[in-house]
Amino acid sequence: MTEQKLAHLVTFGCQMNEADSELMAGLLEGMGYDCTDDPAQADIILLNTCCVRETAENKVWGLLGKLKRLKRQKPELIIGVSGCMPQQKGVVAEIKRRFPHVDLVLGTYNRHELPDMIGRIRSDRAKVHEVWEEAGALPEGFPVKRQGGIRAWVPVIHGCNNFCTYCIVPHVRGRERSRRPEAVVEDVRKLVEQGYQEVTLLGQNVNSYGKDLGSEMDFAGLLYRLNEIENLWRIRYMTSHPRDFSERLVEAVAACDKVCENFHLPAQAGSNRVLKRMNRGYTREYYLDLVAKIRAMIPDAGISTDLMVGFPGETEEDFAQTVDLVRQVRYDQAFTFVYNPRRGTPAAGMPDQVPDEVKSRRIQELITLQKEIALGQNRALEGSILEVLVEGTAQNDPGLVTGRCRTNKQVTFLGTPELAGRLIQVKIDEGHLAYLAGHQV
Ligand code: SF4
Questions:
Q1: Nearest residue CA, atom 2 of ligand 1?
Q2: How far is the CA of 240 from the centre of ligand 1 (A)?
Q3: Residue 188 sits in the same domain as residue 291
Q4: Other CB atoms within 10 A of residue 140 CB
Q5: Which of 203, 255, 341, 405 is most buried as measured by Cβ atoms within 10 A of its Cβ?
Q6: Is 194 inside a domain boundary?
Q7: Same domain flag for 197 and 306
Q8: In which domain, by residue range, is 428 found?
Q9: How many domains does the chain divide into?
Q10: Model confidence at 136, in pLDDT bands (50, 70, 90)?
């Protein structure tokens, strides 16, 4: 009787990394590994890493140190590192030098080579550290092991050509490569057959979808195509780059009944001077105009964003422009970040780095303002009726169920677990900072 092999995957970072982990979990399952949450039980431990911020990297270095003890207790244990960290120049050598107990290293371009690499480690009792310099053709047709449930990630484009000066992503995820439309459609069809009701289309910049496919199909075209799939209830997508958000795309969101009216538009800053130094490729005027166009075509649209404070050279005047942009747009949600230099990015070498105390004062001011606005936006929904896709029982109260409305706000209401996976009309009674409370109608 063959002994059950167990794999423990730890995922850091963004949704794209989660989707990569689901692919690697599928490959491991194909090799006979079951997933375990307990590293002490595992035969392979794989850290799928992120390097978008120093904090994410430090967590990995810390964990690799701790895993040394497990390796000593169980020498046949395979310890692996994958994802964006080893894709950076010099990191493979650093892992070899600092953590010789790491058996397996792979990057973001060769994750589909995992079975072959593990096979070689097992057969040759050797270490395999291989990171591809160049991204090859996008791997298709590999098994994906998802958590189950009603919502699924579907990568549609990999890489980014934008080279924002603070961002490491183009250096570790390569140039934009779109999956063929028929491969995406097939994926989504299969997911619907498996009982998923909502898909989120993933890419560092989904709006560029199809640009590398000649004139075959652009992102709006893909949305129209997926909107035809029966028994699929909702389509979401992330992340968009405002510069590439065309009027045609806004029209597609308005016209496609399954595409949720939720726009995540990372502004990053409100000052044209800072946007230029960030190489964002648009002005505050262009951005505000885009928001106005969206709201003119889709009045109930939900708009969220990413904002950064403390970019090198950011003056009080520049920061005031960011604050003013937030006041004007009135975001439903904003993810706020303090700039921190990433080695290998142009901004890290820029003069006029902003002192930490100034950064923390600015981020506090922005968070306080955005909380006021988000609460106001949620209170404004009191009395309205929203369609909620129920995900399950609320964590802190078994008598309540929770789900998301089309603009991606969390909604809780009295209900039984059987409602999971169903679309329910909910009347909103109370708007809170981070969620809405209501009752089924
Ligand atoms: S659009 Fe800019 S911030 Fe986003 S992944 Fe690309 S380079 Fe990074």
A1: 164
A2: 9
A3: yes
A4: 11
A5: 203
A6: yes
A7: yes
A8: 385-440
A9: 3
A10: confident
